């Protein structure tokens, strides 16, 4: 995992959480993601960079476009961490 701190930093922003929800439905380009927000495309690229650095999203070039998708294995690790934390906290 990229590091739990990087993951939590990435998840702390509502825009990034919304991007992850969108990617849950299907892979999208940065332009398709940007069309859903009222912020600049460079800002979307910055958010995507943070998500990539936290290994929460993966990018793949298809022709002239770069598609972003969820990295479900990292999300599963985070959920496993939360589950373990909750189990120990319930004692």
Automatic annotation (TrEMBL):
It comes from the Bacteria. The keyword Transcription applies. Residues 1-90 form the HTH arsR-type domain. GO terms for molecular function: DNA binding; DNA-binding transcription factor activity. Keywords: DNA-binding, Transcription, Transcription regulation. PANTHER family: TRANSCRIPTIONAL REGULATOR, ARSR FAMILY (PTHR33154), TRANSCRIPTIONAL REPRESSOR SDPR (PTHR33154:SF33). This is Transcriptional regulator.
